[in-house]
Structure formats: C-alpha cells, structure tokens
Design goal:
Length: 168
C-alpha cells in the first residue's frame, strides 16, 4: 500500500507527478462515467486528467481531495496488491465559480510498484453538472430545478398560512 499512500499525498493538480506511479500501459476505467469511459496508456490518462485537474489547463481553479480512506483488499503476493480507496473532492470551475463536489471509490491494481489498473466509481450527475455549468454560466438543470422547487414550496407555504385561502 505504500505506493498508493504516497500517490494520495501528491497534490492532485500536479498530474505529471501522479504519472510517476503509473505503469506505461495503465488502464483507467470509469464504469459509471458519462460514457462508460476507458482510457489505456499513461500518456492518454495524463491528457485526460490534465483537462480536468491539471494546474495550468484544467477546468478547476482549485481542487482538493479529502477524507481519504485506504483499504488493502489483497496482500500476499509481493508483486501485486489490490487496494480500495474512498475519498471526497471539491473544486471550483475556473470559468464561472461553479462548486463541484464528488465522492469516489477507487480500485487499484499495483504490480511491482506500478499502478496497472485504476477503476474509479463516482456519481456522473455531479460531473455533468460541472460540465454543463461551462455553457450556462454556472447554472445547471439541477440548480434550476432546485430553485423552482423552492419557489413552489414558498408559494404553497404562503397560501397555507393565509386564512383567506382555505384549501380544505
């Protein structure tokens, strides 16, 4: 587990530093990603990560990973470890200040000290909202719906508290 623990201490916006722990033929999978994405190869994965969390070109102005819990799923073979991690993240979209939050569960296969498989589970709706905010100035369908629900509830409360409006 030492490799994964060290990787988690690297600031996540330093993508090249993260690449130092990846096998050249790493496979990164997001089974619940927006399109069930699968990326093969360290260079391709670094390019993907740069788009989102890269310090210079990423979509977030700040990015934080916290509440990291790491669990060894299988130790016994010296050359291979299977590790699970739970973590939370938050970031601010550079373009509009949208606040992105997410919880992740990651499965890692580590062989001879190199991450060969990184499978990440997360809620794709949170990511879609962050991406949608790029086109809507920070507003998303979810925030619009939430605002509409608050307006309807406020109207219902006002009607219910008005003695002139007896709905029963």
């Amino acid at each position: 587990m030492a490799i994964f623990d060290q990787n988690l201490r690297i600031p996540f916006n330093i993508v090249v530093g993260m690449g130092g722990f990846m096998a050249d033929d790493i496979v990164y999978e997001m089974p619940f990603g927006l399109q069930g994405d699968r990326v093969q190869g360290k260079e391709n994965l670094i390019q993907l990560l740069e788009q989102f969390i890269g310090k210079e070109n990423g979509m977030y102005s700040t990015w934080d990973i916290f509440n990291i819990r790491v669990y060894a799923a299988r130790e016994g073979e010296v050359e291979q470890e299977i590790v699970f991690a739970e973590m939370d993240s938050r970031g601010i979209v550079k373009q509009n200040g949208y606040k992105y939050t997410q919880s992740y569960i990651s499965l890692l296969h580590i062989i001879d000290g190199w991450i060969t498989l990184w499978r990440e589970y997360f809620n794709p709706i949170h990511l879609q909202n962050a991406l949608d905010s790029l086109n809507t100035g920070g507003k998303t369908a979810a925030t619009e719906l939430g605002a509409e629900v608050r307006v309807v509830r406020a109207a219902e409360a006002a009607i219910a508290s008005n003695p002139m409006c007896n709905l029963h």
